[in-house]
Design brief:
Blueprint lengths: L2 H12 L11 H7 L20 H12 L18 E7 L3 H17 L4 E3 L7 E6 L1 H7 L6 E4 L4 H7 L16 E6 L4 H16 L24 H10 L10 H15 L16 H10 L6 H18 L4 H14 L4 H16 L5 H17 L3 H17 L3 H17 L3 H18 L2 H14 L2 H9 L1
Parallel strand pairs: 1-2, 1-3, 3-5
Antiparallel strand pairs: 4-5
Helix pairs in contact: 1-14, 1-16, 1-18, 2-18, 3-9, 4-7, 10-11, 11-12, 12-13, 13-14, 14-15, 14-16, 15-16, 16-17, 17-18
Length: 458
């Protein structure tokens, strides 16, 4: 059963890197011809933030008056006219579909006057370029947004000029977003959500936010109810470009009371800042260009800092999740211990259902390796529901693959095969077609009903 751990690891890695062509068997090629089309999400299920407006107001100010690296921004900026968006470069069909969905959500949920144009100068230009082009400028970036540029070549030429500095920006008029066309559909969609949100509003990320894309932990991949509230508040008539931090702090309570009256009835929760040393340790633990030992040491340092800070929220859990991922093959028992520690803090923290589903994806593969598939079906079903609402196709595909094995162990072979085939459609969106062929099709080809009966007897 450890083959499932290997398969899932391959899927996770494939989501972060391109896949070199490999030879595909004739049998797999035959099945590929009938492979289900990529699935796509058609309905959003954002949850309204369940926090005090006092907390949300403080978050609003922190998000708008600093950059991710810590640099302070002197004034509040936003677009002051109806916003136009143009998609250029080499966009794929999925990019256009996901952009249309996102713009509709921004209009409906955030009340922003934003629309797409096909020609002419747009306020926000989204150019689809290659990963290689992006990495030439920002080696660690998946995608990025910049001020005062309407094309990749313009930014390449002017990136060291004052016009490209966020700290010197006084009003948002023309911004450029650069997204790779040669990654999975989900990766392109995730970039659209994060970069358009930053083009419209906050430029900072806060690790203490459990329910937001404005968080570098990448747990949430599409705009949440909290994010839409932040964007709606940013375009409230009480605000305007050029306001100082003190001016925004004075009016934001009234804005939130009008937009989110429920937040005035909820108690204020204590909140601690996330120290730069913890952020650096977490980021270093995730850098692929560092040695395994260096990354492990960084994750362990982040775990120690979280304990020293007295945290009990998702920030305390996150380094342990990272440690589990890094130890899962070298020391499975240690990995499971870290996953359990992470889950202990997550279960005690409201609003961390998506975080918990990530951990379930990891722990379920070990349960399957021990033949405990039937016992974990309820946990898998819960995680599948959570990831469906979170619109995370890559995690959804992985969870469905795990569920298919759990059903096989329970002797429910027809259901197992149906669920496995269902996972393929989501995997094609979440990981990309090449990855599906190389990581899943061979497994599907081999797991005929007869083979599954033999597996179930082992």
């Amino acid at each position: 059963m450890m083959r499932w751990v290997v398969i899932l690891s391959g899927l996770a890695l494939a989501g972060c890197a391109s896949v070199e062509p490999t030879e595909i068997s004739t049998r797999v090629q035959a099945i590929e011809e009938t492979l289900p089309p990529p699935k796509a999400f058609t309905r959003s299920s954002p949850r309204a933030p369940a926090r005090s407006n006092a907390n949300i107001g403080a978050d609003f100010v922190s998000l708008h008056f600093a950059l991710e690296g810590g640099a302070k921004l002197p004034i509040f900026t936003r677009f002051e006219t109806p916003i136009t968006v143009r998609l250029t470069g080499l966009p794929t069909a999925s990019m256009q579909r996901d952009l249309t969905r996102l713009l509709t959500r921004l209009q409906r949920e955030a009340g922003i006057d934003i629309s797409q144009i096909q020609e002419g100068q747009a306020n926000i230009t989204i150019e689809a370029v290659s990963q290689e082009q992006i990495h030439e400028i920002l080696p660690q970036a998946a995608c990025f947004v910049v001020p005062n540029s309407s094309s990749f070549e313009e930014y390449r030429r002017d990136r060291r000029k004052q016009k490209s500095s966020w700290t010197r920006l006084r009003n948002r008029e023309h911004l450029g977003i650069f997204i790779p066309y040669d990654v999975s559909p989900q990766e392109k969609r995730d970039c659209l959500h994060e970069e358009i949100a930053q083009a419209l509003g906050p430029l900072n990320d806060l690790y203490h936010l459990p329910d937001s894309v404005f968080n570098d932990d990448n747990i949430h991949t599409v705009l949440t109810g909290f994010d839409m509230l932040i964007l709606r508040a940013a375009y409230a008539p009480e605000l305007r470009s050029g306001m100082t931090r003190e001016q925004v702090e004075a009016v934001i309570p009234g804005v939130l009371s009008r937009l989110n009256p429920r937040g005035d009835t909820l108690p204020v929760q204590p909140n601690s800042e996330t120290p730069r040393k913890w952020i650096n340790a977490v980021q270093n633990s995730l850098r692929a260009n560092r040695s395994t030992q260096s990354r492990l040491s960084s994750a362990e340092r982040a775990a120690r800092i979280g304990k020293e800070q007295g945290w009990t929220d998702h920030r305390r859990a996150y380094p342990h999740y990272v440690l589990g991922r890094m130890n899962q093959f070298e020391d499975p028992q240690k990995a499971l211990q870290n996953y359990e520690i992470a889950m202990q803090f997550l279960r005690a923290t409201p609003g961390t259902e998506v975080h918990q589903a990530y951990v379930t994806t990891q722990t379920a593969s070990y349960a399957l390796a021990q033949g405990r598939g039937p016992a974990i079906l309820p946990d898998l079903d819960n995680a599948i529901e959570v990831m469906t609402k979170a619109e995370n196709a890559s995690q959804l595909a992985t969870l469905l693959l795990l569920k298919s094995e759990a059903l096989s162990q329970a002797g429910r072979l027809n259901q197992a095969r149906s669920v496995r085939l269902d996972s393929l459609g989501w995997a094609r969106y979440g990981f990309g077609s090449d990855t599906v062929v190389r990581s899943l099709m061979h497994e599907t080809a081999e797991n005929t009903p007869e083979n599954e009966r033999q597996i179930a007897k082992r």
